[in-house]
């Protein structure tokens, strides 16, 4: 089969790489793709920007399957359009995409179906929001309702910061109109993990008893810029998979209090949700609770989770669309993956683009690591053919039988990558590196 992958991040490079490993995949069209997919086995980049472009490219190339990476096109209804065009698509339709597109919508869903999460209240009136914050005190969490590219959440540790954040979010100064509706949430203490998974639910499948969510191995992102979980928040400085502190007991609580009610909710709403889901979780004293849902795979978690899959990912994607995911057998490689991310100097603030990425491919191959590119584009006029094009440039993803082995391989590999201003955390997966309250 021919698969089209929509997106241009590190997640999409990992998705394309994993799809290409399937013997049933002839070619992966990446639109627009990035500097990594440009050189990946069986993969080809095709420039595309709009929904109409993506559909046209899929048709012109006789694609049999589409996988949508990021949330924006899903929230804008791209999966609906692909299905209308007759192309089976992994990526939820528009209505359930609101689980990521609107924090208020997601919280209402969680409360309606009894999914373990923090208490909250939603406001459109600033005076009422300020009064609520004064009544409840800090620490407290303020969340812009709409999509805000990870910038819409303020965890306020004191009252001054909380009141300032309400002003800035609701007056549109921080994230524009996304913050005019504000979700104010109880502050949860604990340590964070991510559980990604595949979802295959629609009314016909539910009737036939085939609707399901298949969770992947646990993973952990490291969102702060600096070692020891310090510095500003970023899009993710590195990931590990699996996470040792996720015990069987925590997994059982996750299944009972989060996964099962989420599945029941998706069924009860009558949605057509065939795609991926991301549970952002806080492991609290009372067990895991949902911080957020995303309707896509995590980035950079995907770069750590997919290498451990010991099954045909393309066949799984097909099963998601065909409604046979409930019968699909998953298996996982033993061991661990560690994937530190290299970013451009200055990120998450302003940074330069167009830096030549120097990679000693032979040395990296010796370490056994795989480089997944993100903010990087093809430029055949430069040595190596790839230049930086974003803040998070690449991840070195390495597998090992033990965590230590994976860690050493990943960090040995990243030493063989360089570009002007390159920066990376040295502690991904080590004690004290995870975000915790
Ligand atoms: P979100 O965009 O909802 O994932 O939030 C961004 C980050 O804010 C999360 O990764 C957490 O570190 C933090 N956060 C969000 N909600 C809470 C909460 N209720 N309690 C404590 N920290 C939170
Ligand atoms: N790694 C967090 C996210 O993808 O949202």
Q: Can you lay out the helices and strands and say which pair or pack?
A:
Blueprint (H helix, E strand, L loop, with lengths): L1 E6 L2 H11 L6 E6 L10 E3 L5 H10 L4 E4 L2 H5 L2 H7 L4 E2 L3 H8 L1 H10 L7 E4 L2 H11 L3 E5 L8 E4 L2 H12 L11 E5 L4 E11 L1 H5 L4 E10 L2 E3 L3 E4 L4 E4 L6 H21 L4 E12 L2 E8 L6 H5 L7 H10 L13 E8 L14 E2 L1 H7 L2 E4 L2 E3 L7 E3 L3 E9 L2 H12 L2 E2 L4 E2 L13
Parallel strand pairs: 1-2, 1-4, 2-3, 4-5
Antiparallel strand pairs: 6-9, 7-8, 7-9, 10-11, 10-15, 11-14, 12-13, 14-17, 15-16, 17-22, 17-24, 18-23, 19-22, 20-21
Helix pairs in contact: 5-6, 7-8, 13-14
User: Major sheet: size, sense and barrel closure?
Assistant: 9 strands, antiparallel
Mean pLDDT across all amino acids: 97
Task: Determine the strand fraction and express it as a percent band.
Answer: 25-35%
Got a strand count?
Answer: 24
Q: If helices are DSSP runs of H or I spanning 4 or more residues, what is the number of helices?
A: 14
CATH homologous superfamily annotation of the largest domain:
ATP-grasp fold, B domain
What is the CATH top level name of the largest domain?
Answer: Alpha Beta
Q: What is the count of distinct domains?
A: 4
Helix fraction bin: 25-40%
CATH architecture of the largest domain: 2-Layer Sandwich
Distance between the termini: 46 Å
The ligands found in this model are: adenosine monophosphate, glycine
Report the radius of gyration as a whole number of Å: 21 Å
Note the overall shape.
globular
Structural class: alpha+beta
- Residue windows where pLDDT falls under 50 for at least 5 positions: none
And the CATH topology of the largest domain? D-amino Acid Aminotransferase, Chain A, domain 1
């Amino acid at each position: 089969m021919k698969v089209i992958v929509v997106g241009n991040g590190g997640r999409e490079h990992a998705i394309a790489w994993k799809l290409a490993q399937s013997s049933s995949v002839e070619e992966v069209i990446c639109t627009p793709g990035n500097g990594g997919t440009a050189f990946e086995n069986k993969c080809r980049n095709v420039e595309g920007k709009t929904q109409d472009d993506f559909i046209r490219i899929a048709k012109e190339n006789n694609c049999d399957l589409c996988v949508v990476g990021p949330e924006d096109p899903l929230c804008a209804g791209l999966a609906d359009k692909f299905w209308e065009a007759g192309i089976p698509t992994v990526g939820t339709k528009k209505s359930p995409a609101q689980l990521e597109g609107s924090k208020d919508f997601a919280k209402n869903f969680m409360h309606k179906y009894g999914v373990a999460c923090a208490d909250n209240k939603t406001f459109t009136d600033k005076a009422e929001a300020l009064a609520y914050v004064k009544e409840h005190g800090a620490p407290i969490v303020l969340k812009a309702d709409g999509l805000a590219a990870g910038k819409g959440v303020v965890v306020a540790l004191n009252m001054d910061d909380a009141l300032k954040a309400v002003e800035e979010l609701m007056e549109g100064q921080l994230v524009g109109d996304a913050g005019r509706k504000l979700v104010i949430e109880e502050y949860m203490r604990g340590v964070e993990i991510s559980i990604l998974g595949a979802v295959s639910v629609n009314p016909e499948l539910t009737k036939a008893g085939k609707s399901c969510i298949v969770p992947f191995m646990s993973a952990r992102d490291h969102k702060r810029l600096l070692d020891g979980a310090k510095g500003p928040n970023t899009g993710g400085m590195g990931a590990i998979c699996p996470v040792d502190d996720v015990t069987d007991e925590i997994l059982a609580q996750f299944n009972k209090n989060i996964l099962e009610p989420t599945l029941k909710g998706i069924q009860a709403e009558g949605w057509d949700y065939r795609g991926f889901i991301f549970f952002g979780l806080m492991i609290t004293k009372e067990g895991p609770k949902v911080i957020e849902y995303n309707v896509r795979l995590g980035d950079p978690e995907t770069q750590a989770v997919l290498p451990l899959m010991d099954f045909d990912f393309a066949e799984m994607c097909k099963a998601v669309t065909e409604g046979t995911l409930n019968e699909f057998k998953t298996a996982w490689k033993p061991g661990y993956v560690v994937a530190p991310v290299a970013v451009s100097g200055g990120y998450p603030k302003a940074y330069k683009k167009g830096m030549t990425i120097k990679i000693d491919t032979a040395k990296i191959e010796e370490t056994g690591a795989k480089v997944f590119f993100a903010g990087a584009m093809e430029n055949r006029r430069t040595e190596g053919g790839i230049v930086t094009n974003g803040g998070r440039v690449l991840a070195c993803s390495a597998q090992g039988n033990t965590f230590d082995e994976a860690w050493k391989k990943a960090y040995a590999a990243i030493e063989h990558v360089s570009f002007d201003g390159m920066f990376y955390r040295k502690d991904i997966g080590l004690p004290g590196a995870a975000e915790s309250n």
